[in-house]
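@channel anyone free to eyeball this complex?
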Amino acid sequence: MADQTPSGENLLFLTDEQLRKGIEAMFFAYRGFTADPDRILEGMDYGRAHHRAVHFIHRSPGTTVSNLLTILGVTKQSLNRVLRTLIEEGLVEARVGRRDKRERHLHLTAKGQELERMLSDAQRARMRAAYRAAGPQAVAGFRQVLEAMMDPELRRQYQGLKESGA
Amino acid sequence: MADQTPSGENLLFLTDEQLRKGIEAMFFAYRGFTADPDRILEGMDYGRAHHRAVHFIHRSPGTTVSNLLTILGVTKQSLNRVLRTLIEEGLVEARVGRRDKRERHLHLTAKGQELERMLSDAQRARMRAAYRAAGPQAVAGFRQVLEAMMDPELRRQYQGLKESGA
DNA sequence: AAGTTACGTCAGCCTTGTTGACTTTCCAAG
DNA sequence: CTTGGAAAGTCAACAAGGCTGACGTAACTT
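replying in thread with the prediction:
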């Protein structure tokens, strides 16, 4: 219960300096994280917002617009602009719901899947390299800390995506 | 050298599914990461870009404009817009260089430090909670993976920031 | 004296986010 | 069967924060 080493554990990893380094690590790593897809997208008519939509439609085929809205955390006007171009250009198909005809169920077309694969190949290549360099133990820690950083609401969204994997 | 379990190690953490979960974890965690400062900033005249500038000026007092440019990875026009308002509103002071009078050395004023503290307190509180929940082992892994994800150029920038820690 | 560097600035554009207002469609409950 | 509200789409306007290109000035370097 003492102020120092409260549970006999070394708490040096909770110093402000360590926390600041963690913050900066997130900042720089996120830049790397988005760099490859951004590079691929530039020149095409699409951007990061399209990538996100395509990713989650791939991830949960048949998802509805409002589902996607919740996951992406943007307004429907914002999402709609993105979705409209994806549909117009034949990357995404919006099927009217069978049960509830107000809903649109979103699917990637062959062309959409092709783009998704290009983007996620690039992004996974970087993740794979990082994972491999750091090792399984580090990867487990990485995932734990990231999960703990999420808002509870988002954490549930995240965990709800199929194949939660331990 | 076989295709399966190449080094006798368990490589299940490198499956596409695991990599995708990692990608999604980054996405959702980054939202949490920026949420608190964003909340504080909204309503003020500032945004995320101002936060970043203030953070790195605090971190490296006396840094020059072009230094900051490199770290933030934006154009000088973009940074200038942000820096101008920070200087006008008395959060940042730009001192003409003693040795090289072309350079401007950036410092936070008392008012600037006050904002920096508000923002970083909020952001560190979340990091601290996440670190505490995950434990020191996990934190080490977290940092390792993030470093491995950075572009080499950015990794050097990151490591160059004082108090590298381990 | 000439060239280069650091910084600032004007103008204009793009992407991606926001509000607010309104319509259409459709399910479900009274 | 009507009606209330949810789901989706759309128009308009705006803001933040990126970008490019073109210039200007002061100061350092060769």
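from a first look: Chain A has a mean pLDDT of 92.
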